[in-house]
Structures are given as C-alpha cells and as structure tokens.
Amino acid sequence: MVQFKIQLDSDIPASNQLFNQIRFAIASRQFPPGEKLPSTRALAMQTGLHRNTISKVYERLEELGIVESHAGSGIYVKEQGHEGGGRMQSPLLQKYPQADKVIQTSIDELLQIGCTLNDVRELFFKEIDWRLRSSARVLVTAPAQDIGIGKWISLELEESLGMPVQIVSLEELDAALDKSPFGTVVTTRYFSGLAEAIATPKFVRVIPLDIYDHAKEIEEVKLLPKDSCLGLVSISTGWLRASEVIVNSLRGEELLVVTAHLDDAYKLKAIVRRARAIGCDPASLAAVKAAIQANREDLIRAPKVYCIENYIDKNSINRLKRELGLV
Hints:
Elements (H helix, E strand, L loop, with lengths): L13 H14 L12 H8 L3 H13 L3 E4 L3 E4 L13 H5 L3 H14 L4 H19 L2 E5 L4 H15 L4 E4 H10 L4 E5 L3 H8 L5 E5 L5 H9 L5 E6 L2 H15 L4 E6 L3 H10 L2 E4 L1 H13 L9 E4 L6 H10 L4
Helix pairs in contact: 1-3, 2-3, 8-9
C-alpha cells in the first residue's frame, strides 16, 4: 500500500503536498488505471489531515481528469486514451467489454518478440481470413470401406451446426482439397492421423472429434440375461465391428451378438426374430421398427430397441462450434 506523508512544518501547504504525492503515485503507476484510491477516511488516518481537505484534493485531481468519482463506490484512477476504449468507439466494445484488453495484450506480446505493427496486422488478417475460409466448408472424412460412419457423423453435425456438411472418403480427400483448398476437415480420432497427413501440407486444418462413450448403453448390455441374443444394426460397418468387440469383452460367451448392416434385409429379419434387444443408429431406426412390425405375427415377444442417438460426444461438438466461430 502506498504511504503518504505530510510535513506539517513545511512551507508547502499540506493539501499541495498530498496533491502532488497522489499525482506522482498515479503517474508512476503505483496506482494503475482503474485502481481505486484510498478513501478520505483512510487518508485522514494516515496523514492526519481533515477529510474535507482530502476531498478538495480529490476534487482538484478530478478537474484535471486524472481521477473520477464513482457514486457510492469511491475515487478511481481514470483510464486515459485507449486504456478505457476511447481510442475506438464501437458497439462491439459494449457487447464484448474485455475484447479491447485481449487485443492490446496480444499485440503487445507480438511486438515484444520483434514483430512490427505491419507484421502484426498481416498476421491477424491472415489468421482471420484462414478461419473464415475454414469455417465456410466442413468436410467429414472416413475410409471408403466405412463411409457409413461419415454419414452418421454428418447427420449429427448438420443438425448441431445448422449448416451443410460434405462427406469425402479418405481416399478422395487429397483430390477434393486440390479442387477446393479451403475448409475444415473433421473426423474421429481413429482416422485423424491419416487425415492430417493429407490436409496439413495443403494448409487445411483437421479437427478430431471425440466419440460418445456409450455409457448408458453399456449398462443396458450388462443387465441383459445370460444366453440372450443382442442385435446391432447400423449404417457403419466399423461401428458394428467395434461394438461387437466391446460387448464380447464385457459379457464373453454369455451373450450372442448378431450384427447387420442397414442394407442387409435378410440379416435384419433374422435379428428381429431372434434378438431380445436391438441397438441401432438413428439412420437404421425406421428400418428396424418396420422389420419388427412386418414380423410381429411370428414374434413371441418383440425385441426392445435402443437407438444410439449420438456417435459424437456433445462436448466435442461444442468445441467444434467454437473452432468454427459458431458460438
């Protein structure tokens, strides 16, 4: 805390002594812009001056535009120039009051490492331009042999992002980016390394997506009676293989797991007739329900259907929104 001292036997009036000490403390940034100054009561106890004298000192400082009074709060060091946003009056600063300080800090850090202001401007413009171009197009990629997972991801993203999403197989990604070298490539972490090897040399960013942990569905699998049949139906052959492995690791030979691609009507019919429970993705749900209805007369008990609505973790989608500037 800054200490102010008054020499009562000095020829300089006490009020002038305090005025100059406070002014020096502000000018030397012992009290930085926006900082609250000591109350008149606190200064009176520290200096022995009457509170009215201190109030007049503060009034002089306020007349000079050095401090400002906030009703009911106290006296504060007034921010000067761009410190208080006076440099750039914009409605955006009212909407984002911290933006100015963030920009200033970023510019100052770049200047400290040797950039000129022209360098900073070019770097900012390049980054902004790159992000705008990246946000203009979203490409979902997956191997051609399991393009179904790309379709599942794209359905989720189009609903969540509110924008069209393009599906491109990993095998065609290189040619697609050569034809139109901008956008953002998204895929699961299973394939992100392969996608980066293609996209990064073309200065196209790849954002890996985390998959849904299926915790709720796993608990349902644990509760299935021994020797039950579990059916899995999906547009993704990869999801079917991975899910079968996970179920087997949980229950071993206690459960019979039967899988079917959405387009395999024969296996779907077999699953409906035998399974106690069926897990499927949103794209397959209608076909599963239709198959159950078509075979209802032959069923002793209709299988319970679990629709796995999410393949991508919701937090991961929110991060993608921020990266694309949609939040």
